[in-house]
Every structure is written in C-alpha cells, then in structure tokens.
From TrEMBL:
Entry's family note: Belongs to the UTP25 family.
Name of the protein described by the UniProt record: U3 small nucleolar RNA-associated protein 25 homolog
Gene Ontology molecular function terms on file: rRNA binding; U3 snoRNA binding
The species this protein was found in: Bos mutus grunniens
Function: Component of the ribosomal small subunit processome for the biogenesis of ribosomes, functions in pre-ribosomal RNA (pre-rRNA) processing. Essential for embryonic development in part through the regulation of p53 pathway. Controls the expansion growth of digestive organs and liver. Also involved in the sympathetic neuronal development. Mediates, with CAPN3, the proteasome-independent degradation of p53/TP53.
Subcellular location: Nucleus, Nucleolus
UTP25 C-terminal domain ranges (all copies): 561-745
Gene3D superfamilies: P-loop containing nucleotide triphosphate hydrolases
Originating gene: UTP25
Top-rank taxon, per record: Eukaryota
Region (Disordered): 1-154
Record field: compositional bias (Acidic residues): 85-117
Length: 750
C-alpha cells in the first residue's frame, strides 16, 4: 500500500474520537449503538429546551437505511478491498459478495469474541464483555472527560455558594420549615441512638402488606422497631403536601399534559402520581417495578422531579436562613448546634438515568418547575453547551425504521450512555455543569459514575461527592441489566462513605448523623424499573436501610406474555433439578448438552434458534458448538454487521443448522430473524415480552411448515419470577410444585 495507504489509514484514525479509538482497541468494534461514524466530526445539534418533555422524537439508528461505513470497516478498507453492503431489516435479500459468502461463518468473528470471552473470565475487569460501552470510554469533550473544573471552580464559587449567600425576603422565607408537620423537617431531625444502629444488622425485617387503589399490592417494611403504614387519602391539595415556593404555582402548569382526561380538573396529580408522591414525600424508600417508557415513564419522571426540587429548595432555604440568622446574631450568643443543616459535602441528590436524553428531560423539568408562569425568567448558566451535548437532531430519525413501540420509546433522542453533570440551584438560578462539590444535584449514567469512582489501586478516583447524598433516584433500572449491572453495584458500594478530604466544609454546620457516618440510614432511595428482577430486588433489599422504612410494589402477573404469542406453537417447558442457586449455571449447561441438544442434532431439526440471555452462557455454548464441530452461526452484540448479515443469510437458507442469539443483541437491535422452525430458550428472557416477540418471529417465513414448529424452554425453581411473567402466577406455581418436570402449552389454536 505504501505511503499513500499509510496516509489514508492515518486520516481514518484521525477522524475517530478518543472514545471510538479506545473501543476499537479494546473490543475490535464499536459500541452496538454507535457503529455509525461520520467521516467528519458532526457539529453539535441544538434543540430548544421546551416546557414539555415530550418534544424529542429523534431515533438513534436505522439499519433499513443505507448503512454508513463503520470506523472498523474503514480501517479494514486500508488493508484490503471490502465490498460495501447495505443491510435492511425488513428484507434480507441483499446480494453479498461471493467470496464473503463463502467464508466459514464465525471464523473471522469468533477470534475477536474469544478474546472478549477471555476477558469475561476476569471478575475484576470493569469493561467486561457484558459491558459494550467499556470502562474507559470517553464522552464528548467537556462532559465525560474528567476536567480540572469538574470538582472545583474557584472563579465562580461565590456566586452559587450556600455559605456566602443569604435568603431573599421575596422567596417566602423558610417558614414552612418551622412547621412540625413538614416531612422534610421531621426526616432530617429524626434522632437515632447508637443501640438502634447496632441492632439493624440483626433485627428481622418487619413487613405489612396493604392494597392501594392504583399501585395495588404495597409492602411496607423496616428493620427499625417502629413500622408505620398509611393509606392514601381520596383527595389531596398542594398545600397539604408542604411544597416550597414557587412549586405550588408551577407544578400545575408543568403537569398539565397528564391532567386532561377523566380525572377531576382540580386535582394536581394523576391517580398514580398522587400515590407515588405520598410515598416519596414521607421519605420512605420506594421500589416501583411497573415503570415503562411507553406507558407511564414521563408521568413518573414529572413527579420525582417535583420531589427533587422540593427537597433541594427546602434544604437550601434552611442553610440560607441560618446564614442570615448567624449574621444578625451577636458574637458568643446562641448554640452552634442550632445551625447544623448540612452534610459533609454539598451534593444532596443523585439521579441515575441510562441515556443523555433522559438527563435532558430531567433538566427541562427542573427549569419548568422553577420558572412556570412567572414573568421573571430564571437564569440558566451553560444552557447552550447543554443543548449541544445532550440534545439531538430530529432530522436524524429515519422515516422507514420499523420497530416495536416500546423500542422507539426507550431509544429516542441522544442515547449516549457515558455522561455526568452537576446542577446547582440557588433561589432563581440554575447552574448547569456546576463543579461536583458545588452542586446540589448530580445527574449521571452508571458508566459515567463508574469511570470517576474508579477501582481499587487506581490513582485518579473520587467518590467523596457521594458521601452526603440524601436522595438517590435510580430510574429505568431494567436497562442497566442490559448495559452493565456491575456499575450499579459498584455505585451502591460507594454511597454515603466518609469522605477522604474535608472539601472546605464547616464542621459546625454538619448534622450529627452525618458526622457519625449514619447518612445511609437517612438516605431515601427511589428505584424505578419495568420488571421484577432478582438483581434489582437484591439492591433494594440490601442497600436500602432508611430509618423511615421501605415501600415496595409487589403485584403479580396473572396472565403472562405467553398470551401474546399469535402463532400456533407447542411450548414445552422443561424443569431442571438444581441443588443450589450457585449450581444453576452448570446445571443448565449440562442439562442442555445431555438432554436437549441430542434431540436437535438430526438434520430434520434444522433452523433451530437458541435464545441465550447471558453473554457468558453464550460464549460457553459457542465454544462447545465449535469444539463439537456443529453446523452453527452466532450473533451477539459484538458481531460486526457483515457477520450478522452472513449469519442471518446462512440460517435462513438452511446452510447453518443452529443460530445462537444473545438477548442483548435483541434488546439493542430488534431484528426479525427469519427461517426459524425450532426455538430453544436456554433461559427465560429478562423482559417477558421478549418471549412473545421471539415466538412470533416464526411467522416471518411461514411456508406451510407450521405443524412442525417447536418451542422448548429451560427453567428451574430459581426462575420463579421470570416464569410467572411468561405463563402467569397461577400456572407458574403449579409448574414449580408439580412432580412432573415437563409441561406443555399450545398457543394460537384455531
């Protein structure tokens, strides 16, 4: 190739961002969603902040439009000629280069995936194969990169400093804080004794179950001796919930889009919002597993943003009010304990969201809640920069993309998953990109937090800003199962630890329970997700120890997603006998290899799709199939587009008997796999509706072979939640208690 080729390669490398170069070096390909790279750095697109959070409708990617050449393929193009191919989701009829079609499927892809499989065995690795975004990914300039001003900013410190500002008279003072009924005051003034803290580790959890009109089955629990429950009143007004000014007037306008309908016009909340806010405002921990992007996601986002702003305004008003009293107080008069109103660091609220679009909508709501109909516009610092880095271009939405509605609702707008931003609020001003230790609110993704928290032995790491978090919101928790759940666990392990540095705090203003390292008992955690999952439940049960108690919504699915299967198909559920939870992984593999796979080795049982939720199970099966020299293709979230095209083509034509498919590939792409005749669920899907979606793929190439279709599902007694979500709670209970290990269901009967 000579100098010309090397110069071309240098130009191609130079056009890639630092994040893309890092990902190519670590994984040999780009992130599943960011494999389209323009030859030129695109200018940041600006979207106007609106009062409504429903304005963004841009889509992330279209495989049905002509594919832009990825950075990986452009690098390959400097070494050899590669045929340009377009991939369409609706019809996989594109003509492929004969030499490419004759390649042994998997030989070129497996080498890279085997490298990643080796990495996956390292439990300490952060950027494991289950983490397509990678540990050391870098976001756009000034957002994800750690800058000197990310933690401190001496130049603008005084403008937003709580210690050097005083309460404005027009803000209404902090009279509401004096009310003994205010739940905020009651919560922060709750006094715990040493013996109560020591008893938490050994105390059994006391629970009480109630049925609420909208939320359904609500379970109150606490590890502290006193457990209080309550039922929602029929009607509530804004004055009774102790909202800080100006929220009483701005909330109605901000929430108006949800109030038109059968609800009474004078109600400030929807029925769901009312019950959720009553729990939030009581400062109990909350787990709500029925939050979906399509149905009630925005409704819930509105109400938790109201709770966040209400909490921040009250906390800051308390500090500013005490500043004024201290200024007017005579020297040596009074007790310093009267002014204990802060934590060890300033950040009080942490909101964890999966994508930049969600962060954009949260900030939009903050502005709307503080501004409302007021003629005085609030001052928003760094607004233009924020629009450019968190906004998206609506024109990027492809007109011919066909995906399920829930997919379009989740993957809308800017779906970058590596970001963090500090927000400072002082009376009628909002400062975006505030230094962390000058921020009231932190909004971040799990990956954005993971890269700043760091790991053991890393020199550059910081988690002191998490020491005094009073309100933690984890929204769309189910999506983190598809990203990297280890990042969430890593975050929870670093919450409310004593800081390593003082960060200029006035210890005479720090609350005693914060000095005693009891902050985790005063932290309220709000956990929202789309499903009941063992890993999410574990986080709620293990890390939520609020003194006010916990509230979890525990409704059980009565029908299950199997009722949404439209094809006529026999579903054979085979139960594995396992001794313990730790042995499930090996037991499933041995059961599949010894009992299930032999039934499908015959050529008659071709066109068999094996759906594998776990990437680690996928690697194990792929290596076994390769060792046994089985005729198979495989698709995972790391497979290149050319590899995906080949695998789908070979499977459709019957040239490959088996197709291994990961759940995360389905989550990120939602391709319709054609040519399926036999379906095996190696494990029940994480999302119950994925079960019906995959089963309904059999309709894609119906050629009168319906009578021969089969579906086999593997499960164990430890899969009770996922089983109930698929077949319904009553059937699941019967299947788990039955002496029989095989159960048959038939759908789509005529």
């Amino acid at each position: 190739m000579g100098k010309r080729g090397s110069r071309s390669q240098s130009q191609l490398l130079g056009s890639l961002t630092k994040k893309q170069k890092k990902h190519l070096r670590d994984f040999g390909e780009e992130h599943p969603f960011y494999d389209r790279v323009s030859r030129k750095e695109a200018k940041p697109q600006t979207c106007q902040l609106s009062e409504s959070s429903d304005t963004s409708s841009s889509e992330s990617e279209a495989e049905s439009e002509p594919e832009q050449v990825s950075g990986y393929h452009r690098l390959l193009a400097t070494l050899k000629n590669v045929s340009k191919e377009e991939e369409e989701e609706e019809e996989e009829d594109s003509v492929m280069d004969e030499t490419e079609m004759n390649l042994e499927d998997g030989d070129s892809d497996i080498s890279e995936e085997e490298d990643m499989a080796a990495e996956s065995t390292d439990a300490e690795s952060v950027a494991s194969p289950a983490d397509p975004e990678g540990k050391d990914g870098h976001g756009p300039p000034g957002t994800s990169e750690e800058s000197p001003e990310e933690f401190t900013d001496a130049k603008h410190e005084s403008l937003f400093s709580l210690e050097t500002n005083f309460l404005e008279e027009e803000s209404g003072g902090d009279s509401s804080l004096k009310a003994s009924q205010d739940p905020f005051v009651q919560h922060v003034n709750t006094k715990l004794k040493e013996k109560e803290i020591q008893a938490v580790a050994t105390n059994p959890k006391t629970t009480h179950q109630l049925k609420w009109p909208i939320l359904g089955q609500v379970v109150f629990s606490s590890k502290f001796q006193k457990l209080e429950t309550f039922k929602p009143p029929k009607d509530i007004d804004l004055k009774s919930v102790h909202l800080q000014k100006p929220l009483e007037s701005t909330w109605i306008k901000t929430n108006s889009q949800f109030l038109s309908g059968p609800q009474k016009s004078n109600s400030p909340f929807t029925p769901l919002q009312k019950e959720l806010f009553l729990i939030m405002n009581s400062y109990r921990d909350l787990f709500y597993p029925e939050r979906t992007a399509l149905k009630n996601g925005e409704e819930i986002r509105h109400v938790y943003c109201l709770h966040v702003i209400n909490h921040i305004l009250k906390a800051n008003a308390q500090v500013l009010g005490n500043n004024s009293r201290r200024r007017s107080q005579k020297l040596g008069v009074g007790d310093d304990d009267d002014f204990r109103d802060q934590g060890l660091t300033r950040p009080k609220v942490l909101i964890v969201v999966p994508f930049r679009e969600a962060a954009l909508r949260v900030v939009q709501l903050f502005i709307s809640l503080l501004e409302g109909d007021s003629k005085k516009k609030i001052i928003v610092s760094n607004k233009k920069r924020f629009n450019g880095e968190y906004g998206s271009n609506p024109e990027e939405r492809p007109p011919n993309l066909k995906r399920p509605e829930d997919y379009e609702a989740v993957f809308v707008g800017n779906i970058d998953d590596h970001f963090r931003i500090g927000v400072a609020i002082l009376q009628r001003s909002i400062r975006l990109y505030a230094p962390f230790y000058s921020s009231d609110i932190l909004i971040a993704s799990p990956l954005g937090l993971r890269t700043i928290i760091g790991g053991e032995g890393e020199k550059k790491r910081d988690f002191d800003f998490l020491s005094s978090i009073e309100l933690l919101i984890i929204d769309q928790a189910d999506i983190y199962l598809m990203q990297n759940w280890e990042h969430v666990l890593h975050l929870m392990n670093h919450m409310n630890l004593l800081p390593l540095d003082s960060h200029g705090v006035d210890f005479s203003r720090v609350r005693m329970w914060s000095l005693n390292n009891w902050s985790k008992y005063y932290r309220q955690t709000l956990l929202f997700g789309a499903l009941q999952d063992a890993q999410i439940n574990s986080v709620f049960n293990k890390y939520c120890v609020n003194v006010q108690g916990q509230v979890a919504v525990r409704n059980v699915p009565m029908t299950g997603s199997i009722s949404q299967v439209l094809v006529q198909l026999p579903h054979v559920f085979q139960r594995m006998e396992v001794e313990s939870l730790a042995s499930v992984i090996d037991a499933r593999f041995n059961f599949f290899v010894n009992k299930i796979l032999p039934q499908y080795r015959d050529a008659v049982m071709s066109h068999t799709l094996i759906y594998v939720p776990s990437y680690f199970d996928f690697v194990r099966l792929r290596n076994y199939f390769k060792k046994e020299e089985l005729n198979f293709a495989h698709i995972c979230e790391y497979t290149q587009k050319s590899g995906v095209s080949r695998a789908r083509h070979f499977f459709l034509q019957g040239e490959k008997q088996f197709l291994l498919l990961t759940e995360r590939f389905h989550f990120y792409k939602r391709y319709t796999i054609k040519g399926i005749r036999n379906l095996i669920f190696y494990e029940l899907p994480t999302y119950p509706h994925f079960y019906s979606e995959v089963c309904n793929m059999l309709r894609a190439t119906s050629r009168g072979e319906e009578a021969a279709w089969t579906c086999t599902v593997l499960y164990s007694k430890y899969d009770a939640q996922r089983l109930a979500a698929v077949v319904g709670v009553e059937r699941a209970a019967q299947m788990l208690q039955s002496k029989k290990n095989v159960h048959l269901f038939i759908t789509g009967e005529r």
